[in-house]
Amino acid sequence: MTSTAKRDSMDATVDDVKTGMQELDLAQAPRKRALGLTDLPPTVRNNIYKYCLDTELVNVGLKNVSYTHQIKEGLLQFKSSRSPFPVHTGLFSVDRKLGAEASRFFYEKNLFIRFKLYTSDARHAKTMLEESGLLFSASPPSLVEMSTRHAMDLTLVEKNSGQKRAEVMFPAQYLPRLINFLDQASHATSTWAQNHSVFITVLNRYSFSLARLQGDLLEPWRLLTNLGAVTIDPDHLLPGYAQSLAQSMITPLFSPEAWLDSLHEVVELAAESFSTGEYKLAEQYVQSATIGLTYGYLTRAEVLHSQPETFSKRIQRLRWRCELGIAKALTHLHRPTTENTEWLTDAEISASDKADVARDLISGERAASRALSLATDSPSPNTNPWFVTLPAELIPPNKLTWFNDIERSSSWLVLGTVHMALGENLFAAGDCERAMKILTDDGKKLGDGEAEKAVGEVEEVFAKARDGIDWNMPPGRGLNRAARLARS
Fold first, then answer.
1. Beta bridge partners of 114
2. How far separated are the first and last CA of the chain, in Å rounded?
3. Domain of life of the organism in this record (predicted)?
4. Which of 213, 271, 362, 426 could hold 208 in an S-S bridge, CB 3.0 to 4.6 Å?
């Protein structure tokens, strides 16, 4: 065994020391940069914005707000016991990117409404603002007047008065309180509604679809009737919507049949748009009709449930048309992309485009399933469209006999076309097989012309689905990929 003798430090030469000093690195190792807000995923940032900028969440657990007022030059000016909306606007000035992102979240989430009141008696304005339960900003009217980024302008005029008594800003979440107060006032005094006029202008659409924007800001107004005058600016709204809403608000009494007829007209407009290739507009029309049906049962459930069975049948068939229309419109909208059967993995298609298509097709698949649930009167609440937005006790009745075999077959066929667009040809073939089974009787095709046409449509899609099956791909992979893209 050999051993290495230790070298005495005195044996080190000057050259050795010099070389060691040259090789010595005195620089500190760079520290890792701390994670900042911009490094977080968008979903996490949005969650932070929610707790900092959502006017509803920032008020959780805080004391109620009370207001005092004074009148200056005939105009009510309010002071609040605390900040009505203690949001953290410092996020707007962190940096340019985050400021723009936070600002966009702030305005889109809260949908602020600028409310102007004209009346000869300031007490009427004070009573309305304080007793309606409205939570509003106490900013001076001069500052409120300067706003340009809020969602909607709302003006209420009593007896054609030209005297402005109040101008405040409040988020749309409190709009139902104001409308309920107006509805109660109109029932308490027979002449109240006729003495008031409403003017509505939607100023900013943000990134919302037209149907959703109308649902959040305008659809609740259908609760009111018999108003003296209503003027609604049609900008940022679906064609014909402003006129339809204004007409319902000046009608002396609510008529269930007239209300349902107006929704049928919207669905017919959707069918016209679909036939001309305006698939996005068609989808927005049927979404608008769906929102209208939902609000109807939320606000007038007692009246609607007291109608005869034929009325409920019309309701359910209309909802079926809406759900089927959504699925068909979204599938046709993206057909240029989904004709490429590898679109989910095609590198030439941008990630954002894939995500948009995936979101719409997942929505289309869900809508087709809901249409099928209605046509088959499925007992499962998971696919029943009414269970998503209504309490169980408000859901209108449904019966299997209200739909025929061709309509049930059509529901399966549309579901199959959506599955094909998602690359799930095996699922699509199963859907088409069910559609074909409904249209056949003991192996023989039904005899009338309409059924024969339906059989031909199913056979065409069925053949395409069978030919496109990839036996090497497990079922559900396309749906899972689309779901991941939709969440991105």
1. 153, 169
2. 66
3. Eukaryota
4. 213
Give bridge partners of residue 171 from the DSSP assignment: 112
- Give CA–CA dist 74/119, Å, rounded: 10
Taking the CA atoms of the chain, what radius of gyration do you get in angstroms? Answer: 31
Q: Report residue 144 as tokens.
A: 């409120």
Q: How far apart are CA 35 and CA 13, in angstroms?
A: 48
| Euclidean distance between CA atoms 28 and 336, whole angstroms | 57
Residue type, 216: D
| Tokens coding 121 | 């008696």
Of residues 235, 332, 329, 233, the one with CA closest to residue 284: 329
Per-residue DSSP letter, 56: T
* 343-389: pLDDT as tens digits: 999 999 999 999 999 999 999 999 999 999 999 998 888 889 999 89
pLDDT > 80? residue 23: no
**One-letter amino acid for residue 281 of the chain:** L
Distance between CA 283 and CA 209 in Å, rounded? 10
Q: Estimate the crossing angle of helix 279-299 against helix 210-217, to 10 degrees.
A: 20
Cα→Cα distances 106→55, 90, 94, 175, Å: 9, 12, 15, 17
Distance CA 165, CA 300 (A): 32
Report the distance separating Cα 30 and Cα 172, nearest Å.
Answer: 50
Domain boundaries defined on the chain: 259-488
- Percent of the chain residues topping a pLDDT of 70: 91
Length of the chain: 488
**Residue 321 token pair:** 């048309």
Mean pLDDT, the chain, integer: 91
Residue 90 is given by DSSP the state G
Which of helix, strand or coil describes residue 249? helix
Partnered with residue 156 across adjacent β-strands are 117, 198
Q: Domain 259-488 belongs to what topology?
A: 1.25.40
